User: Fold this.
Amino acid sequence: MRTQYPLCLLVVLFHTTMFGMFGD
Assistant:
């Protein structure tokens, strides 16, 4: 389960970048 932690963080970061690019 510890391997899923960084994966989730990466997904959140990816979404934030996408939203930031498309949002602006």
Notes: The chain has a mean pLDDT of 82. DSSP finds one helix and no strands in the chain.
